[in-house]
Write a structure and sequence with these properties.
Layout lengths: L3 E10 L8 E17 L3 E8 L13 H13 L5 E7 L10 H16 L6 H16 L4 H9 L2 E6 L4 E5 L6 E7 L5 H6 L7 H20 L2 H7 L6 H4 L6 H10 L4 E4 L6 E5 L2 H17 L4 E7 L6 E2 L1
Parallel strand pairs: 3-4
Antiparallel strand pairs: 1-2, 1-11, 2-4, 2-5, 5-6, 7-9, 7-10, 8-9
Helix pairs in contact: 1-2, 1-3, 2-3, 2-4, 3-4, 6-7, 9-10
Length: 309
């Protein structure tokens, strides 16, 4: 039979104050995965584009392949033949949830081609198992919004207890990707395990304020709350010129600005598309000042997540 193609969007993990527990889906960029039935048992990856030779064809070493394998195991269909094509439409190691998008697209494509009837929420554990290959653990801040859309909060990663947050109309995300690579495992390994009581209190207050601001459409509260006092200071040194980029976004009217996922991409939460455009231009100039070319992505919050296309 003919294949099923699924698009899964890029995401901004953490959103600054929600390390490992909060993320948001973008309209673009994203990844596409095509799944087809095959007479050969098991999962095979037959084509990869847009990855520059960086991704393995071995399905057990590929996030999309692992996600598909785990789903077939759950279905009791490990002997079912599945062929996958992976079309990378975003940079790898960018802090935009590239591995999560591939895993999310894969599980939905396989589910659709097999007509399982499973909901996207039921598919989340298998997408997360694929993304774990790169991240080193179950963190849902990228894979949940990529699959389900919207702003997602994971109350508990291990039990996949995730919840969609209300998002005020008009919010825009500006994401600027400097043309360099950071790998999630390496950046995570650099994080300190120590935390002061003051940091704990301030971060909790900022996360709570951000959530209240989202539900009440309190734009000023969102701006006051989007201040990461724990992870951002530790990761800022990995992104050349980060604080100049952040200041450029804030001067342009952004509500807040921080590192997207593990970086090096930097996001700015903006009250409207005009501020988003201005912030993107100024952030790009700040990266240029440290001799880094960059790409700007402007997006409202994507409420759909992964979709058959």
């Amino acid at each position: 039979m003919s294949g099923i193609k699924v698009f899964a969007p890029a995401t901004v993990g953490n959103i600054g104050v929600g390390f490992d527990i909060m993320g948001v889906a973008l309209e673009r960029p994203g990844d596409e995965v095509v799944a087809s039935k095959s007479a050969t048992p098991g999962v095979r990856i037959t084509k990869i584009t847009g990855a520059g030779g960086k991704l393995p064809y071995d399905p057990e070493q590929n996030t999309a392949g692992v996600a598909a394998i785990r789903l077939l195991e759950f279905l009791g269909a490990s002997s079912q033949g599945i062929e996958l094509e992976i079309h990378k439409k975003m940079p790898i190691g960018s802090g935009l949830g590239s591995s999560a998008a591939s895993a999310a697209a894969a599980v939905l494509a396989v589910s659709e081609v097999l007509r399982t009837g499973l909901s996207k929420r039921e598919l989340l554990p298998y997408a997360a198992m694929g993304e774990r290959l790169v991240s080193g653990g179950i963190q849902l801040d990228n894979v949940a919004p990529s699959l389900l859309g919207g702003v997602m909060l994971a109350r508990d990663n291990e039990t996949f207890d995730v919840h969609r947050l209300h998002a005020p109309r008009g919010l825009y995300m500006t994401v600027v990707h400097p043309h360099m690579t950071l790998m999630t495992r390496e950046v995570r390994a650099s994080l300190s395990q120590g935390l002061s009581l003051e940091q704990h209190v301030r971060q909790n207050a900022n996360l709570a304020g951000f959530i209240i601001g989202m539900y009440n459409a309190d734009i000023a509260l969102l701006g006051r709350s989007l201040q990461d006092v724990i992870i951002e200071p530790q990761r800022a040194g990995f992104v050349p010129g980060f604080y100049d980029v952040k200041n450029a976004a804030m001067d342009a009217g952004a509500l807040g600005c921080s590192i997207s996922g593990a970086g090096p991409s930097v996001f700015a939460l903006c009250p409207n598309s005009l501020v988003a455009e201005n912030a993107g231009r100024e952030m790009q100039r700040a990266f240029a000042a440290v001799k880094l070319e960059s790409t700007v992505y402007l997006s409202p919050i994507n409420q759909e997540g992964a979709v058959v296309c």
